[in-house]
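Researcher: I'm preparing a figure for a lab meeting and need a structural model of a single chain. I don't have an experimental structure, so a prediction will have to do for now. The sequence is pasted below. Please return the structure as tokens so I can convert it later.
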Amino acid sequence: MKQLPAGLLRNRITFQKQVISEDGYNVITWKDDFSKWASIETGTSNETELSGRVLGEITYTIKCHFSQKITAKHRIKHKNTYYEIVGEPVNLDFANTVTLIQAREITDA
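Model: Understood. Here is the structure written out token by token.
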């Protein structure tokens, strides 16, 4: 059974969920759902051009203690950075101890 050493979990992240306004305008906003301590590891980065704009994409691997509440519909906030979850979070080794999340940050390059 794999455990995450407490020293690796040095980033406090907040999982946010989408909220659609009920005023008839259907404005999408994000609301804090819950927070966890996690490790964030940088993966790869690349740039693409879309409609004359250069966009940078950086991928990350995020690990935290296991939680069934984490879904691909959440986004992650860490300080002033927001990460989109790519695919479903993984229950590492099916041990219910570590959740592995692939995420990406899209920025203006």
